[in-house]
Amino acid sequence: MRTALVIGTGLIGTSAALALAGRGVTVHLTDHDPARARTAAALGAGTDEIPEAPVDLAVVAVPPAHVPATLAEAMRAGVARGYLDVASVKGGPRRELEALGVDMSTYIGTHPMSGKERSGPLAATADLFEGRPWVLTPTRETDTEVLNLALELVALCRAVPVVMDADAHDRAVALVSHTPQLISSMVAARLADADETAVRLCGQGIRDVTRIAASDPTMWIDILSANPGPVADVLAGVAADLDETVRALRALQSSDEDKRRDGASGVEDVLRRGNAGRERVPGKHGAAPAVYETVAVLISDRPGELARIFADAGSAGVNIEDVRIEHATGQQAGLVQLMVDPSAAPVLAAALRERGWALRQ
């Protein structure tokens, strides 16, 4: 691949353009808002000049509702040898594109499983896709050359290709992406009118659950409107669990010992099923999730403190597998939770104490 055209310079389009441009591909940028394309170009993602000849690959990075029309327009204009989109829904847009009567052999649907709560070109980074799954949904009609261009794009973005059927993909993302977004938003909505005293008690748990609730509602309306059925199916299952859990909790309030026992059993059931589901979430490098031990360190809110603690861990020969930061309410300090291999935890704790860090149990 020597040349590419990125249509849509939001987070995903600009990030892909940055990755391609950084690896020597000449990238042309276009957007319905020319200012966004100019911003992406200024960031080093390519040029906002129109290509003089057909490019090797056109990457359509627009909301799902606009994918079919945008692709059809580009394909009829012959702007590229191959075409793909990066929308988070695959089945519906493909069927709409087929109905428009274009040459489907030059097209492949794709979806990089990566993103941020922020949108727009200024949120983009060249490493957004590194190590992340990038779904490809080829059909019998897909030309081998187009599939190879898509695979080359994935490789240049340092992502991991995953081949799926389009409708299977939509059911999968309903479960692992779209429903979590709605549930996170529902939990966060409970905080909107909550008493300030309660909000001040927020800890890492509520921050973890509500992190993605900060996402752009307009973007998510576009996504959910393109995949409503599978999301509704998953939510129906969640709703059934909620009903059962509410009944179990009400039973725990009963003065009847048998009802309380049944209530406790119902709550335990959903918690244990949650344990079993969580164990299936892939861990580092896609392997089964490892069990890490946490070393908690008190840290002040001063520039360079995180860098210093990571450097001290590195000097001790300990690899930090994950990290969480919990800020202390109303104070210029916080708690850094360093997740490490259990065998490395005593080594790290001793090294950090020796360097003057205050550890917490």
Automatic annotation (TrEMBL):
Catalytic activity of the protein: prephenate + NAD(+) = 3-(4-hydroxyphenyl)pyruvate + CO2 + NADH
Record keywords, A-Z: Amino-acid biosynthesis, Aromatic amino acid biosynthesis, NAD, Oxidoreductase, Signal, Tyrosine biosynthesis
Gene3D superfamilies assigned to the protein according to its UniProt record, in alphabetical order: 6-phosphogluconate dehydrogenase C-terminal like domain, NAD(P)-binding Rossmann-like Domain
InterPro entries: 6-PGluconate_DH-like_C_sf, ACT-like_dom_sf, ACT_dom, NAD(P)-bd_dom_sf, PDH_C, PDH_N, Preph/Arog_dehydrog, Prephen_DH
Transmembrane segment boundaries: none
Keyword Signal: yes
Classification via PANTHER family: PREPHENATE DEHYDROGENASE, PREPHENATE DEHYDROGENASE [NADP(+)]
Family: Belongs to the prephenate/arogenate dehydrogenase family.
Protein name: Prephenate dehydrogenase
Protein source organism: Streptomyces wuyuanensis
